[in-house]
Design goal:
alpha+beta; Nuclear Transport Factor 2, Chain: A; six-stranded mixed beta sheet; 3 helices; 25% helix
Length: 120
């Protein structure tokens, strides 16, 4: 991760944990009742989120942060180039996913991950 990006601690822990395969480090940043939507699938509650994170770690997913936008204290948008050992059928050569984080009381309460047209 480029150190010039000033990410809130739970978002930084998520990115760092993803890049080091540290499920508990990533999960610690989520509220117990948080939800994630990735690949049009919802994962609700910390147990479901841990299972989803384990799948990402199994696929050796890594995130290279390209751009960060912070919208007040509760919303962080991270564009990250993704690499890993997951199926790439129908995906561009360089996969940039946008992560929309919502924060509440110092924890991630919501995360939506989308493949946007940010490959410019």
């Amino acid at each position: 991760m480029n150190e010039s990006f000033a990410l809130p601690p739970p978002v930084a822990a998520y990115i760092d944990g993803m890049n080091h395969g540290a499920i508990e480090e990533m999960a610690a940043g989520f509220a117990s009742d948080a939800w994630v939507n990735d690949e049009h699938t919802e994962h609700v509650g910390i147990g479901a989120i841990r299972a989803w994170l384990a799948g990402a770690v199994d696929a050796n997913v890594r995130v290279d942060v390209r751009r960060v936008r912070i919208n007040g204290p509760a919303h962080v948008i991270v564009d990250g180039e993704i690499d890993g050992t997951f199926p790439r059928d129908g995906l561009p050569d360089h996969i940039v996913l946008t992560h929309y984080f919502s924060l509440d009381s110092g924890k991630i309460s919501q995360l939506i991950i989308l493949l946007n047209d940010v490959n410019r």
